[in-house]
């Protein structure tokens, strides 16, 4: 059964198979500088930082490190690009849509290179980079390209002599300019896309990319008086700092996509094997380094033992190894800090009385690989039940009643995504209505689409990305009221 366009043999339906990259065939990394005004720049302070292949520990290259001065230059370029009379401001909406389509075309052309860079920089298995990440990015560009000439105002009759027009300040697809700071651990694909933005024909200054660190480049963005909106994906702790900085600066709008401790509720009447496979996709995809990770799996008591048994058997099929090997399904963690955090949480699970059913160990002495790990008999008070692990750890709980499952699922500071597995549509709809999460998947997991809004409740953030709802986050509403002449 294909999920998210991926068939069982790892090939995306409708996408031709391409030669699998070999390490010796990887092209030289071309773009390592700061991208401002469609030009490549060295950092103002002359500093660089290394980026590593987490699978091997080998340094890939040095990347220019943006600081406050570089962010100021990027913001200045972005503001200039959106001034009245600029090329971008005068461009009609359909032309902006065509530019987004052109960028999608170029990403299709460079898909193999981009996927290889992503795998080298993150450790993610290549097939996931190529068939899931790149596919999703390209589809999202095309989706918003289609919106570019469809965002418009409304005329509202409010009496005989008055007309009101509601006008939207353009979202990215219809006129905003942006400054992008990629994660310092993984800047390479974003920088390559900068070259494609220029090649596609975007005017200078519309998109600017400033690789750097959170306390410097990130803080400069959050505190900048000339930035109108910040969208951030990352930890809840950093999201709180960004929101505070935004409030203390120019009260800029902020949307946040933060942590998750996502519950899956598996009822006894479900398709059991489907539930096992989908919850493990949720737990182990991208080495568990997903805000959507299925890290709390609540299983009805009568099927609990069988669910655990099948989960162990399924986990044994996971191949941990070289991300550039087509057989690999799990790569390394992103860096030593994250590796250590995961291992510490695994040890806490053992000490607090959870039953380690499978995995729980590092693979190799000095590598960043961790075995897929399954805990059963997990209790709600344990650290592994409350803290976001962000690693390949699946925690399986048991429950007796539907009401109990809902209450325990909701007893978290997070509220990003959840899932329900049952053959009863009445139960599925009833439970999904009760779950305090921004997304609920029924009999599936990680079903993300450009058309569907995505975001969280509680400390998982605020605002929505993707879908039509995201347009409101990148636009302003203006009411213009005109008194009409009473004469005929």
UniProtKB/TrEMBL annotation:
Residues annotated as the enzyme's active site: 257
Single GO molecular function: aldehyde dehydrogenase (NAD+) activity
Enzyme class label: oxidoreductase
Residue segments, region Disordered: 1-20
Superkingdom: Eukaryota
Gene3D superfamilies, per the entry: Aldehyde Dehydrogenase, Chain A, domain 1, Aldehyde Dehydrogenase, Chain A, domain 2
Domain Aldehyde dehydrogenase: 41-160, 169-480
E.C. number(s) listed in UniProt: 1.2.1.3
Keywords carried by this UniProt record: NAD, Oxidoreductase
InterPro entries registered for this protein in UniProt: Ald_DH/histidinol_DH, Ald_DH_C, Ald_DH_CS_CYS, Ald_DH_CS_GLU, Ald_DH_N, Aldehyde_DH_dom
PROSITE patterns per record: ALDEHYDE_DEHYDR_CYS, ALDEHYDE_DEHYDR_GLU
Biased composition (Polar residues): 1-10
Assigned protein family: Belongs to the aldehyde dehydrogenase family.
Protein name stated in the entry: aldehyde dehydrogenase (NAD(+))
Organism this protein belongs to: Lates calcarifer
């Amino acid at each position: 059964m294909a999920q998210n366009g991926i068939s069982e043999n790892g090939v995306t339906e409708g996408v031709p198979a391409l030669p699998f990259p070999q390490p010796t065939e990887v092209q030289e990394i071309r773009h390592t500088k700061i991208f401002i005004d469609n030009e490549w720049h060295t950092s103002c302070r002359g500093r660089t930082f290394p980026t590593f292949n987490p699978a091997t520990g080998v340094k890939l290259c040095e990347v220019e490190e943006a600081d406050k001065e570089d962010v100021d230059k990027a913001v200045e370029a972005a503001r200039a690009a959106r001034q009245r009379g600029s090329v971008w401001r005068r461009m009609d909406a359909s032309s902006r849509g065509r530019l987004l389509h052109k960028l999608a075309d170029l990403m299709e052309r460079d898909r193999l290179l981009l996927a290889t860079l992503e795998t080298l920089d993150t450790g993610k298995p290549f097939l996931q980079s190529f068939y899931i990440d790149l596919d999703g990015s390209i589809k999202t560009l095309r989706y918003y390209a289609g919106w570019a000439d469809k965002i418009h105002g409304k005329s509202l009759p409010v009496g005989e002599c008055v007309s009101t027009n509601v006008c939207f300040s353009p979202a990215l697809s219809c006129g905003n300019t942006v400054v992008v700071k990629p994660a310092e651990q993984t800047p390479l694909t974003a920088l390559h896309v900068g070259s494609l933005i220029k090649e596609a024909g975007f005017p200078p200054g519309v998109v600017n990319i400033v690789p750097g660190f959170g306390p410097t480049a990130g803080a400069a963005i959050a505190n900048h008086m000339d930035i109108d909106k910040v969208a951030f994906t990352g930890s809840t702790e950093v999201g709180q700092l960004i929101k505070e900085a935004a409030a203390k600066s120019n009260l800029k709008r902020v949307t946040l996509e933060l942590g998750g401790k996502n519950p899956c509720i598996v009822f006894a009447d479900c398709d059991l094997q489907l539930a096992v496979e989908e919850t493990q996709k949720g737990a182990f995809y991208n080495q568990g380094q997903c805000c959507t990770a299925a890290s709390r799996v609540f299983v009805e008591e009568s099927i609990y033992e069988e669910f655990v048994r099948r989960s162990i058997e399924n986990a044994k099929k996971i191949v941990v190894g070289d991300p550039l090997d087509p057989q690999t399904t799990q790569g390394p963690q992103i860096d030593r800090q994250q590796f250590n955090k995961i291992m510490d949480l695994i040890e806490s699970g053992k000490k607090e009385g959870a039953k380690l059913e499978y995995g729980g160990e590092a693979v190799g002495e000095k590598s960043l690989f961790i075995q897929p790990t399954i805990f059963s008999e997990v209790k709600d008070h344990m650290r592994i039940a409350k803290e976001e692990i962000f690693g390949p750890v699946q925690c399986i709980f048991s429950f007796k009643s539907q009401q109990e499952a809902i209450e325990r699922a909701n007893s978290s500071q997070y509220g990003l995504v959840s899932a329900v597995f049952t053959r009863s549509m009445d139960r599925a709809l009833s439970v999904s209505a009760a779950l305090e999460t921004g997304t609920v998947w029924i009999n599936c997991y990680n079903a993300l689409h450009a058309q569907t809004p995505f975001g969280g409740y509680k400390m998982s953030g605020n605002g929505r990305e993707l879908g039509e709802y995201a347009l409101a986050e990148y636009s302003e509403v203006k009411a213009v009221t005109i008194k009409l002449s009473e004469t005929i």
